[in-house]
């Protein structure tokens, strides 16, 4: 197939990135925005000999599961790449992803529960990080088109809390009015690279973070900050300094410009203080349901000592604290450990302690000192657990490992390693934390097969 050639394709399934999959003359074709059961005429964008990427030029036969998306930019940018699929079918797709990965690993005996739906299908995100760029001579915000750095300007952010969208647009207008230059990637100049807005769903308080090339610039305080602080709901303003040529959004240092140093949000009946770089689950209404599922399946007792690895600002460990004897949280980010300790004090929780360091280094040390771990909670990044962590966890001999995963591929890989070390499970429970996207969160409890 050649670039720009139009081919007719029958779509048979969705890829893990939510692209329609079909075949033409034995070659796999990935078609953006196409759904299983559809027949489409597709324009070839890129041919890689054994597979090709394409976009729809015409839908010949439409799926009954298709939703008419008001703005196709949602799908183009990957902001909501499943927005054209009915929500119940999105939940089935996520369950199927987990089933197929287990099947490939010859773990078909493990049951996959139905995906737990989100209370909100849109407008659920409590944080937005959006690029700021010049487009046709005007400062714009939006998202990059998938697999590119071409900005698609947006005014409706669909999956974000509508209040966050309101503040994003208000800040954009202030930057335009004050003629603050947007960042230029190629020239590595300009000022504002990204806007971050966080909202405490329970409190309504909002934090604005300007991610900038320089630590300061003309008009920052007298013009920009003085205007932003007048936006309804904004309680906190920071500048994040990111001077490097990098695709990483946030730099290392945050500078407090105005208002509160934290905003508050709740998980269940607990209050958490959130700073600019705090890891806090994106879907505030679904998070308590995720944690309750993990805690219930863990079967915790008042005699248990649990380790909360990758503890962040303490959300999981503090949520579990009332059910157990002691919580030990481990986190490599010093600022997060400080926040976790503050959150324990804020909620008057006295049986949770937090430590700076790598869990794979601290846990064997604790085991050597005679500490007996009953349950380990892990909520790792997408890359999953390291082999070193799994070895260290197994050496401390926990009865259970509660694995909260945001990537089913690394979950299945890590489950196999834990099974080789003597742990077993019969259930994976998918949870939809990110409606309108292909991302799958899940809870799996692995138990030691032989308990001393």
TrEMBL record:
Stretches assigned to the TRAM domain: 1-58
Keyword Lipid metabolism: no
Listed GO biological process terms: rRNA base methylation
Family annotation (Pfam families): TRAM, tRNA_U5-meth_tr
Keywords: Methyltransferase, S-adenosyl-L-methionine, Transferase
Gene3D superfamilies per record: 2.40.50.1070, Nucleic acid-binding proteins, Vaccinia Virus protein VP39
Superkingdom: Bacteria
Positions with a binding annotation for S-adenosyl-L-methionine: 281, 310, 331, 379
Keyword Lyase: no
InterPro entries linked: MeTrfase_TrmA_AS, MeTrfase_TrmA_CS, NA-bd_OB-fold, SAM-dependent_MTases_sf, TRAM_dom, U5_MeTrfase_fam
GO molecular function: rRNA (uridine-C5-)-methyltransferase activity
Active site: 406
PANTHER family tied to this protein: RNA M5U METHYLTRANSFERASE (PTHR11061), TRNA (URACIL(54)-C(5))-METHYLTRANSFERASE (PTHR11061:SF30)
Family: Belongs to the class I-like SAM-binding methyltransferase superfamily. RNA M5U methyltransferase family.
Name the UniProt record assigns to this protein: tRNA (Uracil-5-)-methyltransferase related enzyme
Organism: Lactobacillus helveticus
């Amino acid at each position: 197939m050649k670039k720009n050639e139009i081919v007719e394709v029958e779509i048979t399934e969705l890829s893990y990135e939510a692209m329609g999959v079909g075949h033409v003359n034995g070659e796999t074709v990935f078609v953006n925005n196409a759904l299983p059961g559809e027949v489409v005429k597709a324009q070839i964008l890129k041919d890689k000999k054994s597979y090709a990427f394409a976009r729809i030029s015409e839908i010949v036969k439409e799926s009954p599961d298709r939703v008419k998306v008001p703005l196709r930019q949602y799908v183009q940018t990957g902001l909501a790449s499943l927005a054209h699929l009915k929500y119940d079918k999105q939940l089935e797709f996520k369950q199927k992803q987990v089933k197929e990965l287990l099947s490939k690993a010859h773990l078909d005996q493990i049951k996959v529960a139905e995906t737990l739906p989100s209370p909100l299908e849109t407008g659920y995100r409590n944080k937005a990080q959006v690029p700021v760029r010049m487009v046709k001579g005007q400062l714009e915000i939006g998202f990059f088109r998938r697999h590119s750095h071409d900005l698609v300007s947006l005014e409706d952010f669909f999956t974000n809390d509508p209040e966050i969208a309101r503040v994003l647009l208000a800040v954009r207008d202030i930057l335009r009015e004050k003629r603050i230059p947007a960042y230029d990637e190629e020239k590595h100049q300009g000022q504002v690279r990204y806007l971050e807005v966080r909202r405490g769903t329970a409190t309504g308080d909002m934090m604005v973070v300007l991610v900038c090339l320089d630590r300061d610039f003309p008009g920052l305080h007298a013009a920009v900050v003085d205007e932003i602080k007048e936006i309804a709901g904004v309680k906190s303003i920071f500048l994040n300094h990111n001077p490097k040529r990098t695709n990483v959004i946030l730099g290392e240092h945050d500078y407090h410009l105005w208002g509160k140093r934290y905003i508050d949000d709740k998980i269940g009946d607990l209050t958490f203080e959130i700073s600019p770089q705090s890891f806090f689950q994106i879907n505030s209404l679904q998070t308590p349901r995720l944690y309750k599922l993990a805690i219930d399946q863990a079967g915790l007792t008042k005699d248990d000592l649990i380790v909360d690895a990758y503890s962040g600002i303490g959300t999981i460990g503090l949520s579990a604290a009332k059910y157990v004897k002691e919580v030990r949280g481990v986190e490599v980010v010093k600022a997060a450990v400080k926040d976790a300790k503050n959150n324990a004090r804020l909620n008057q929780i006295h049986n949770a302690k937090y430590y700076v360091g790598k869990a794979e280094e601290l846990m064997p040390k604790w085991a050597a000192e005679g500490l007996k771990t009953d349950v380990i909670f892990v909520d790792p990044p997408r890359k999953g657990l390291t082999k070193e962590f799994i070895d260290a966890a197994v050496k401390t001999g926990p009865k259970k490992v509660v694995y909260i995963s945001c990537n089913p591929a690394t979950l299945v890989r890590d489950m196999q390693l834990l099974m080789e070390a003597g742990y077993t499970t019969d259930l994976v429970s998918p949870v939809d934390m990110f409606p309108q996207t292909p991302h799958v969160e899940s809870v799996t409890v692995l138990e030691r097969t032989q308990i001393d």
